[in-house]
Amino acid sequence: MKNMKDNPQLKPTTPDRSYLRKFIEKFKTHQNGKERKILIERETLPYLIILSLLNAFLLHDFKSGISSFFGSFIVIFLLLIFFYRDLKRYKPAYLKKKKMMALLASLIVFTLIISRGFEHIFLVFSKGLGVESIVMHTFGIPLALGPVIVVLIFDFHTAITFSLILSLMAGIWLKTSLIPLYVFIGCLIGAFSLLKCKKRTDIINAGIYIALANIFSSSAILLIMGFFDLHSLYFAVVFSVINGFTVSALCFLCLPAIERLFNVTTPVSLVELLDIDHPLMKQLSVEAPGTYHHSMIVGSLAEAASEVVGVNPLIAKVASYYHDIGKIRMPEYFVENQTGCISKHEKLNPHLSSMIIIAHVKDGVELAEEFNLPEIVKDVIQQHHGTTLVTYFYQKALKEMETPPSEQDYRYPGPKPQTKLAALIMLADAVEAASRTLDDPTPARISGLVDKIIKNIFLDGQLDECEITLKDLSEIKKKFEYILAGIFHRRISYPEPAKEKIV
Question: Could you say which of 265, 292, 322 is where a domain stops?
Answer without folding.
Answer: 265
